[in-house]
């Protein structure tokens, strides 16, 4: 394996974490991209809390452009999902198209949240 091949899979090569909030009709979308890890999980947690407290029929957390996520980020999403189950199922997820994120979700047993 060439050195450049190895670097392409490392989280350090992934762009920094970004969240964009977009309203589409009555729904609120949180569009996540880049690398969600311990350093950015607090930013996500704050954005989810704000979204949960806004008037919206549904809050959609779109992970499709999220390239990397560690267990800290997954924990934030799992806690938001648990709150949503208690409060009327207003939260849903769009799965990531990146294998590293999908693998973490599968290994954690949280796949049903993202289906």
Q: Brief overview, please?
A:
With 115 residues, the chain is α/β, with parallel strands linked by helices. The protein is built from 4 helices and 4 strands, in the order αββαβαβα.
Descriptive notes:
The chain has a 4-stranded mixed β-sheet with strand order 1-2-3-4. Residues 1-11 have low confidence and may be disordered. It has helices at 3-9, 41-52, 71-86, 99-108; strands at residues 18-24, 27-36, 58-69, 91-94. It is α/β, with parallel strands linked by helices and 115 residues long. The protein has one domain (3-114): Transcription Regulator spoIIAA (2-Layer Sandwich). Strand 1 (18-24) and strand 2 (27-36) form a beta hairpin. The N and C termini lie far apart (34 Å). It is globular and about 35 Å long.
Key descriptive features of the protein:
single chain; 115 residues; disordered N terminus; globular; four-stranded mixed β-sheet; alpha/beta
Count the E strands. 4
The level 1 CATH classification is Alpha Beta
Radius of gyration (CA) equals 14 Å
User: What helical percentage do the residues reach?
Assistant: 25-40%
List the helices and strands and how they pair.
Blueprint: H1 3-9, E1 18-24, E2 27-36, H2 41-52, E3 58-69, H3 71-86, E4 91-94, H4 99-108
Parallel strand pairs: 2-3, 3-4
Antiparallel strand pairs: 1-2
Helix pairs in contact: 2-3
């Amino acid at each position: 394996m060439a050195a450049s091949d190895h670097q392409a899979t490392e989280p350090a090569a992934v762009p920094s974490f970004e969240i964009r909030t977009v309203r589409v009709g009555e729904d609120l979308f949180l569009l996540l991209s880049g690398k969600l890890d311990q350093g950015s999980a607090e930013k996500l947690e704050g954005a989810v809390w704000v979204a949960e407290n806004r008037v919206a029929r549904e809050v959609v957390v779109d992970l499709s452009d999220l390239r990397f996520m560690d267990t800290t980020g997954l924990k934030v999403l799992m806690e938001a999902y648990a709150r949503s189950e208690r409060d009327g199922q207003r939260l849903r997820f769009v799965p990531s198209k990146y294998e590293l994120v999908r693998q973490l979700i599968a290994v954690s047993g949280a796949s049903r949240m993202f289906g």
